[in-house]
């Protein structure tokens, strides 16, 4: 039986197992394939991945904080994964470990309209931020990157040939005219989404210099974080009338792309969406 999994630290919150279990059943593969979540610390990641092929694994998804490490240990990589510098999908083949990045295509598929010509602000500098910035740039957006550690943002902006962003002069927050499309690829909001009431939404957003009261109906807001309740950013963005794409929608599309790589079959996206939102 070919096995699949998602590797992360933490990973207990992941909706991927439920989503992929439904997809495998819809495809008639439930009796032959399986999907599970595996918690693995960064120090153990390489050794664990090395053990998976002989344990019957055909591939894995990779989430925080392993996406850069996933690419570094692969024997080969897709053009997207190589250009982004991170991987979220590994396949175990006779030729070795193959790295792919479906975060990029998943983001674009989840957007309500093309980002071409838009001013896109990406918050974060990890593997997901890399994928988002690269995907948006390739799709024709004018991309800026911000991170709380300015040196990381500067380095990533140089690698991807985009702009390092700075908040508007004279204030701590991003102003409405600074962007049309906002992507939160930080972990801000993860605690609040997983445990409703864990903190003040506006206090959480101040950690990424966002004042949601400045959002307008013309804005598109994407938050890669997901949990049992809306994140502070998506909750307040919806109140302001902005178009919101939550992390579950991006997860569905990137997961569908991974499943297509592993099985060669067209994934049942709507069934995956229902499962991700119900789990």
Task: Report on the architecture of this protein.
This protein has 279 residues and is α/β, with parallel strands linked by helices. It folds into two domains: 3-101 and 249-278, Leucine Dehydrogenase, chain A, domain 1 (Rossmann fold, 3-Layer(aba) Sandwich); 105-245, NAD(P)-binding Rossmann-like Domain (Rossmann fold, 3-Layer(aba) Sandwich), CATH 3.40.50.720. The chain contains twelve helices and twelve strands. The strands form two sheets. A six-stranded mixed beta sheet has the order 2-1-3-5-6-4. It has a six-stranded parallel beta sheet with strand order 9-8-7-10-11-12, sandwiched between helices. The longest helix is centred in the C-terminal third of the chain and has 17 residues, at 247-263. The two termini are 24 Å apart. The model is unreliable at 192-199 (pLDDT under 50).
Q: How would you briefly describe this protein structure?
A:
This protein is α/β, with parallel strands linked by helices and 279 residues long. The chain is built from 12 helices and 12 strands.
Global Rg: 18 Å
Q: Work out the helicity level.
A: 25-40%
- The low-pLDDT segments are 192-199
**Structural class, please?**
alpha/beta
- As an assembly, this protein is single chain
Distance between the termini: 24 Å
Instruction: Give the spatial strand order of the biggest sheet.
Output: 2-1-3-5-6-4
**What name does the CATH topology of the largest domain carry?**
Rossmann fold
Main sheet characteristics:
6 strands, mixed
Q: Number of helical segments?
A: 12
Number of domains: 2
DSSP summary, beta strand count = 12
What would you give as the CATH superfamily of the largest domain?
Answer: NAD(P)-binding Rossmann-like Domain
In the CATH scheme, the class of the largest domain would be Alpha Beta
Instruction: Kindly report the average pLDDT value.
Output: 90
Strand content: 15-25%
CATH architecture of the largest domain, by name, is 3-Layer(aba) Sandwich
What sequence of helices (H) and strands (E) makes up the elements? EHEHEHEHEEHEHEHEEHHEHEHH
């Amino acid at each position: 039986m070919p096995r699949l999994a998602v590797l992360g630290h933490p990973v207990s919150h992941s909706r991927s197992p439920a989503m992929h279990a439904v997809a495998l059943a819809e495809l008639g593969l439930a009796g032959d394939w399986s999907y599970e979540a595996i918690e693995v610390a960064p120090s153990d990641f390489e050794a664990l991945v090395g053990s998976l092929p002989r344990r019957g694994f055909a591939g894995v998804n990779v989430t925080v904080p392993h996406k850069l490490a996933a690419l570094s240990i692969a024997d080969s990589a897709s053009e997207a994964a190589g250009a982004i510098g991170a991987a979220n999908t590994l396949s175990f083949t006779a030729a070795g470990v193959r790295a792919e990045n479906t975060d990029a295509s998943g983001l674009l598929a989840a957007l309500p309209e093309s980002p071409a010509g838009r001013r896109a602000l990406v918050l974060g500098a990890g593997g997901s931020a890399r994928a988002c910035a690269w995907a948006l740039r390739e799709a024709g957006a004018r991309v800026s990157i911000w991170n709380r550690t300015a040196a990381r943002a500067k380095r990533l902006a140089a690698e991807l040939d985009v702009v390092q962003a700075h908040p508007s002069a004279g204030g701590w927050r991003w102003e409405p005219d600074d962007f049309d499309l906002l992507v939160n690829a930080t972990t801000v909001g993860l605690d609040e989404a997983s445990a409703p009431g864990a903190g003040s939404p506006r206090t959480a957003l101040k950690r990424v210099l966002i004042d949601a009261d400045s959002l307008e109906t013309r804005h598109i807001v994407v938050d890669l974080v997901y949990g049992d309740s809306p994140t502070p950013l998506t909750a307040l963005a919806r109140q302001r009338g902005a178009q919101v794409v939550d992390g579950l929608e991006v997860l569905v599309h990137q997961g569908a792309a991974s499943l297509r790589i592993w099985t060669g079959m067209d994934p049942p996206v709507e069934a995956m969406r229902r499962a991700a939102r119900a789990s």
